[in-house]
Amino acid sequence: MANTKSAKKAARQAERRTLVNKARKSRVRTFVRKVEEAIASGNKEAANLALREAQPEIMRSASKGILHKNTASRKISRLSARIKALGQAA
Questions:
Q1: What pLDDT, on the 0 to 100 scale, is given for residue 87?
Q2: CB environment 15-51: b (16+ within 10 A), e (fewer)
Q3: Which pLDDT belongs to residue 82?
Q4: What pLDDT, in 10s, does the model give residues 50-79?
Q5: What is the pLDDT of residue 2?
Q6: Which of 10, 46, 85, 88 fits 38 for a cystine, CB–CB 3.0-4.6 Å?
Q7: In angstroms, rounded to a whole number, what is the distance separating the alpha carbons of residues 12 and 42?
Q8: Contact status, residue 74 vs residue 32, Cβ threshold 8 Å
Q9: Distance (Å, rounded) from C-alpha 33 to C-alpha 84?
Q10: What is the pLDDT of residue 1?
């Protein structure tokens, strides 16, 4: 347990940040899931729309330090590649 006043404050801040980060990560997962559901349904227009909504959320999480910048870019790239493949398969 923290002994000094500054260590106690740091522990409180870490607790608060953890909750905020958890909420942001959950929000990103929700947006990604919506894109994946649209891809699974085979609806390219809906998938594109969902990706356009998810993209800023994913990049925002990268800028806030929730995801690494390359991880965010990779997620967006892989989702858009799957959407692009929808048109070619049909």
A1: 75
A2: eeeeeeeeebeeebeebbebbeebbeeeebebbbebb
A3: 95
A4: 999 999 999 999 999 999 999 999 999 999
A5: 81
A6: 46
A7: 46
A8: no
A9: 17
A10: 78
Q: What is the token pair recorded at 85?
A: 């493949």
Got the DSSP string for 23-90? Answer: HHHHHHHHHHHHHHHHHHHT-HHHHHHHHHHHHHHHHHHHHTTSS-HHHHHHHHHHHHHHHHHHHHH-
- 3, two tokens: 């002994």
Mean pLDDT of 31-41: 96
Length of the chain in terms of residues written = 90
Helix axis angle for 69-89 and 5-41, nearest 10°, is 10
Cβ 82 vs Cβ 44: under 8 Å: no
Other CB atoms within 10 Å distance of the CB of residue 84 = 13
Q: Which residue is associated with the tokens 């919506």? A: 34
